[in-house]
Design a protein that fits this description.
Radius of gyration: 20 Å
Number of helices: 11
Largest sheet: 7 strands, mixed
Strand content: 15-25%
Number of strands: 13
CATH topology of the largest domain: Rossmann fold
Strand order of the largest sheet: 12-10-9-8-6-7-13
CATH class of the largest domain: Alpha Beta
CATH architecture of the largest domain: 3-Layer(aba) Sandwich
CATH superfamily of the largest domain: Response regulator
Distance between the termini: 33 Å
Structural class: alpha/beta
Length: 378
């Protein structure tokens, strides 16, 4: 969606304002395509052993083709183009990481010279608050976070219920009526919960307009660590074999289990956070949020002297900032048109279509009253 690019395109002027390092990085490869984050190395060698821009991952793998990777794409893209050194840090103990593990990663980044540290995921809050108080000369960007009341922390979250709504609405308008939602985080991740709640609302509204009833199987099983697993793949295969047509794969690397099941059973998948269509032919569309652009913008504000606009505040991004949406250039819709989608987007922007953001945790979705959707919680 062209509108979705607006936040990123606003960064065209950023690099003329950024304070460049002037030789802190290794020699650049002239063959790198800076418009493609995959062509920019994930690791680099700093000439002076210092790394000016740092990223601390959430649970799951860096290359999860979703939340971590989407955020880091913005971090490394900004740093590379601004000629600044960069490095990523993964807290020890994987999906069992503690606040101490996360703090240690932030400490390592700060002591390695980071002027700004981007931390991904709501579970970073406790460690981030401690690190920000200990390293007051370092600024921290809290992606999927909130205002911690510290001037050197900028909380940035997204209105995930909006792209979730667009995806649910679109897929029902496309003609599907047996859907699924498989979420990561075990039902306690606010962003995932908002995605799922918006998805059901969108499906319900489309079904109401069409005078039909839609079934949605809904689960957080096997998704707590956001990791792929044979158990989740088996569960999803069962869904597809029993009539589920499309599953919203909402949670990092669990995408791999769900697309494997979809591929084996002629099913379809909705991706999350970024456009995941290049990663599986089963992806019909993706519910996206501007992770890369938000990270780039926050780092640029650290560099150009405008940090005070976001530091000590919480910023929530949605349709009003062109920061969420569906990828119309790559989606595989045949019946639901781009014009219909853009008209719906405008209605949400104007407020004539409202989306509730009070997302329930875990099986709380089953207690919600939807006129044209039947929730089957598993």
């Amino acid at each position: 969606m062209k509108k979705f690019l607006a936040l990123a395109l606003a960064l065209v002027m950023v690099f003329s304002l950024a304070a460049c390092s002037g030789g802190n990085t290794e020699t650049k490869n002239d063959n790198v395509d800076v418009t493609n984050p995959d062509s920019i190395p994930d690791t680099m060698t700093s000439a002076d052993g210092k790394y000016q821009v740092a990223f601390v991952t959430d649970v799951g793998q860096l290359k999860d083709k979703s939340f971590n990777q989407g955020t880091y794409d913005g971090v490394k893209s900004y740093a590379y183009q601004a000629n600044e050194s960069y490095k990523y840090y993964q807290p020890a103990n994987g999906d069992q990481a503690t606040d101490d593990d996360r703090y240690d990663a932030m400490k390592a980044a700060a002591e390695a010279g980071a002027k700004v540290i981007v931390c991904a995921g709501f579970m970073q809050a406790g460690a981030l608050e401690r690190a920000a108080k200990d390293y007051t000369d370092t600024n921290f960007v809290f992606i999927d976070g909130w205002n911690l009341g510290l001037d050197n922390v900028a909380g940035i979250d997204f209105k995930e219920e909006q792209p979730g709504y667009f995806a649910g609405y679109a897929i029902v308008k496309e003609g599907y009526d047996k859907l699924g939602f498989a979420g990561g985080g075990g039902g306690t991740n606010p962003a995932v919960n908002r995605y799922g709640y918006g998805f059901v609302q969108g499906a319900n509204d489309a079904a109401k307009e069409m005078g039909k009833t839609v079934e949605i199987k809904y689960t957080y099983q096997y998704g707590a660590s956001f990791s792929a697993s044979p158990e989740l793949q088996s569960m999803m295969s069962g869904w597809y074999q029993n009539g589920t047509q499309v599953v919203f794969a909402c949670g990092g690397s669990i995408f791999q289990s769900i697309t494997a099941a979809a591929s084996a059973n002629d099913g379809l998948v909705i991706g999350v956070d970024v456009d995941q269509s290049p990663d599986s032919e089963t992806v019909i569309t993706s519910a996206m949020k501007g992770l890369s652009a938000a990270a780039m913008l926050a780092i640029s504000m650290n560099d150009n002297g405008t940090w005070g606009l976001i530091g000590g505040n919480g910023t929530s991004l949605g349709v009003a900032e062109n920061a969420v949406g569906l990828p119309t250039d790559t989606w595989k819709m045949k019946n639901y048109t781009v014009a219909e989608y853009e008209a719906l987007y405008q209605k949400v922007l104007e407020g004539s279509v409202t989306i509730d953001n009070a997302a329930p945790e875990a099986d709380g979705i089953a207690a919600k009253d939807f006129s044209n959707v039947t929730i089957i919680y598993e």
